[in-house]
User: Fold this.
Amino acid sequence: MDYTEIITEIYNEVRGIKERGKVADYIPALAEIDPSQLGIAVATADGNVFGIGDWQTKFSIQSISKVFTLAMVIRHIGDEIWQNVGREPSGNPFNSLIQLENECGKPRNPFINAGALAVTDRLMRLYERPKEDILCFIRQLADSEDIYFDKNVAISEIYHSSRNSALAYFMKSFGNIEGDVETLVDIYCNHCSITMTCGELARSFLFLANRGVNPFNGEEVLSVSMSKRLNALMLTCGFYDESGDFAFRVGLPGKSGVGGGIVAVIPGELSIAVWSPGLNRHGNSCLGIEVLERFTTRLQTSIF
Ligand code: GLU
Assistant:
């Protein structure tokens, strides 16, 4: 199937929308991004990519990287990770500290910042060269060598990482972080800073539309069951305290990042990445959600 027509139609409709939210400015390097950009790319398991607008422009994937780090950890230790992190929606903002105290330093899920820090802490102990290994993992999934950290964004985030450091130290006080917090925050901020295009991002999520198998090299990245679980976590927790509304409007597992990217998957069929830097109050791309809602509504396909 050729998705060019449907994404072109949707692109032309939504680019006229004035209410686009605000770019993330708590990471100063992200505050400089031009908010008028919009890109859409669809990747199908047979290797085709259909794109429109700014789909070949690199942007900071931010929290979307949390899906890759979780995949890297569960493929090694499987269910053991659930000793450190829960798997329930948090109903709280992505960087909230509140629940952590009541729940003894165990984050609700791997996609809020606290949960992702706990996952990265495990990753640091499983991989000898965590930063290089993260890049290598994503490059294989996207079938592209052209994927790097954005040092400018990483440094900007590290300079403004008080809240993430607080989350990590707080969890360490409960014994739920083992590594050195500065090293942990450095690796975490670097993986959040990775830049990709919509085309690369859509390709890199195809394994989750393909029962855990990387369609570019045939490698089993995750078992069928782990891939099901990762999709389930994206559906229930991928959009912070807007996860329920995303499921209601779009009906697909997906993940957002404060760089304005959203990637979603129709299992067995395709993955779709949308990028528009303006965010709503939950930290999710305004136009990104709008595009995806129109996409599944028009295709009459979702997981439901
Ligand atoms: N790097 C961001 C942070 O730690 C990730 C948040 C996001 O993309 O939602 O705040």
Remarks:
- DSSP finds 14 helices and seven strands in the chain.
- The chain has a mean pLDDT of 96.
- The first helix runs from residue 4 to 14.
